[in-house]
């Protein structure tokens, strides 16, 4: 996996790198699945590496996959740090800025504890966040809203 990462990361930021052994019926060898954040980076990597001997004896066969069959699980959201890393990579460190418009605790506004005196065994904290992102070199400004939720437990023994 390290060799695959080194060979393909020069084309752009990688989302994931996985290496697998071939099935017994296919003979000895292995294959890898490399996911880029950018389709353009993936295409450049495919053109540059297909048929090349990067770190192995036999030439690589590099294909760009446009369909994702068999992936039934939900893709997790990107962390704030990863989003900032991507923005800095593709837009430059001075190519964007963000501004927090509001961050509000909206726990309990959805009627989860409507009955007086009734407390839920499983409490959750909900926060609403509004953010503005500006791309000054492109004259673009956009706002986004998100709702985050976390299990707060039953409150016993927690600060």
From TrEMBL:
> Where is it mainly found?
cytoplasm
Please name the GO terms that the record assigns under molecular function.
DNA binding; RNA binding
CDD domains registered for this protein in UniProt: RRM_RDM1
What's a BP term from Gene Ontology annotated to this protein?
DNA recombination
Task: Indicate the segments forming the DM1 domain, all copies.
Answer: 78-151
Pfam families recorded: DSRM_RDM1
User: Which keywords does this Swiss-Prot/TrEMBL entry list?
Assistant: Cytoplasm, DNA-binding, Nucleus, RNA-binding
Q: Does the keyword S-adenosyl-L-methionine apply?
A: no
Q: Which named protein is this?
A: RDM1 protein
Subcellular localization, as worded in the UniProt entry = Cytoplasm; Nucleus, Nucleolus
């Amino acid at each position: 996996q390290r060799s695959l990462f080194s060979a393909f990361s020069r084309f752009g930021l990688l989302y994931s790198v996985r290496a697998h052994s071939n099935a017994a019926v296919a003979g000895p060898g292995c294959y890898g699945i490399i996911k880029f954040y950018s389709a353009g980076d993936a295409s450049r990597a495919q053109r540059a590496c297909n048929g090349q001997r990067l770190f192995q004896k036999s030439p690589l066969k590099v294909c760009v996959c446009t369909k994702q069959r068999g992936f039934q699980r939900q893709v997790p959201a990107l962390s704030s740090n990863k989003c900032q890393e991507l923005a800095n990579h593709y837009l430059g460190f001075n190519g964007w800025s963000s501004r927090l418009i509001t961050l509000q605790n909206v726990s309990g506004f959805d009627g989860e504890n409507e009955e007086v005196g009734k407390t839920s065994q499983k409490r959750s904290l909900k926060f609403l966040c509004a953010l503005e992102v500006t791309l000054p070199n492109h004259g673009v400004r956009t706002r986004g809203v998100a709702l985050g939720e976390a299990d707060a437990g039953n409150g016993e023994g927690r600060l």
